[in-house]
Amino acid sequence: MAEKYFKYVILGGGVSAGYAVREFVNQGVKPGELAIISKESVAPYERPALSKAYFFPQGPARLPGFHVCAGTGGDILLPEWYSAKGISLILSTEIVKADLASKTLTSANGDMFKYQILIIATGSTATKLTDHGVPGADAKNIFYLRDIEEAETLAKAIKAENRKVVIVGGGYIGLELSAVMKINNLDVTMVYPGPWCMPRLFTAELASFYEGYYASKGVQIIKGTAAAGFNSDTNGDVKEVKLKNERVLEADIVVVGVGGRPLTTLFKGQLEEDKGGFKTDAFFKTSVPEVYAVGDVASFPMKLYNDTRRVEHVDHAHKSAEQAVKGIFASEQGKLIDEYDYLPYFYSRAFDLSWQFYGDNVGEAVLFGDNNPASENPKFGSYWIKDGKVMGVFLENGSAAENKAIAKVARLQPAVDSLDLLATDALNFACNI
Ligand code: FDA
Ligand code: NAD
Hints:
By secondary structure, this protein is an alpha/beta fold.
């Protein structure tokens, strides 16, 4: 059992860990001072690739091509980069005990890691149907997608021909995975309980475009019901999905995307929590001195909306990590930095579609543009208006300049006199702000 000390430890080796390390180097961290401890076996990578290019039949994304910071056009940080900078990349190491009072982390094999400053970047885990007691949900070939090992197992499983895939869930994973499975020529059925897909962001009008488009690509969609159980063969391989509405679907492969849960259990009772994550200030300091939380596990002050939020998206993972590290170095030097002032940004890509959303989807939604899935070049979006001001903007198929314009509008929250005029003015409204 070894015991090691590092001035700075990042717990977790995902997206925010990778961007935090780059910022540590920018800030002049010295060799030997910093360690990343990750239960994954590879250096930090851009997790979004796993539900998109990782499954492309031609030229799929593979490591080292999508290590951080490929996602933002930065240098790709290879394992050699960490050793050249004197940063300890401690992989395949799961921390099973954390004691903040003695500043000690203990791994599954009993190694102990002591630190002065800890950054918690443990991210989320996929919600399992077994957690909900769904009968038969432990059958083989029922997949979840959170890390590269799971992506690789699923990529191998779809290699056999004529496979029937059922996707359970109509959120991010459901929409992105059903698209890549279809691109692989598989027979794909999506099942979700809501009246339309991605209900946490899409309005009925936005969703109707995506549902129509997916149907035109051959994805079968069953709405308003959920998986109630699974039947498997004598090998234990899944063969059928039983739905709550009594329908039974044949399946060789099931991919489940029914939401995630932030990984906070290691610190239960040791840190103040809020909205399922660790409560932080605008510099990602938690309730315990010298302990920071970033990415999916941070519940931080959202200055723009004057409330506290937890955000499970990659842009916030990058920015929160950089903010925390800048704050650590600033306080060591007795300097001040600006508070985190985050503008929510989510995006997705599937088939040849690509959307971006900025801001808050609250208030009345105003659809604009052509959202007919049969159109040759559909382009549409939605504004959300509350108290006479634009709060959020969604755009499918926007150019770089148009996406920049909608981000600006969501940040500035201009006043809107007439919702009817806004609908006709459409993207011009955003581009003229
Ligand atoms: P992240 O999950 O990246 O990293 C957590 C790390 O901590 C992992 O390495 C994990 O193994 C490690 N860890 C956890 N507990 C540990 C322990 N006890 N001991 C050691 N290590 C431990 N967002 C977006 O905006 N656009 C997109 O297109 C996508 N696409 C996407 C696809 C898929 C498949 C997923 C799963 C997620 C996305 N996301 C996304 C969400 C985005 O990837 C997510 O918000 C960030 O990865 C969060 O970064 P974190 O660093 O917080 O967690
Ligand atoms: P999600 O919350 O986006 O979607 C979950 C979906 O599952 C919802 O549509 C919900 O109605 C449905 N659902 C819930 N219970 C169900 C049940 N019993 N049967 C069928 N459907 C059910 O979560 P996700 O898609 O699993 O994504 C997991 C995490 O990965 C999230 O943090 C997400 O932000 C992240 N992610 C983000 C992106 C992106 O930003 N482009 C892409 C992939 C993953």
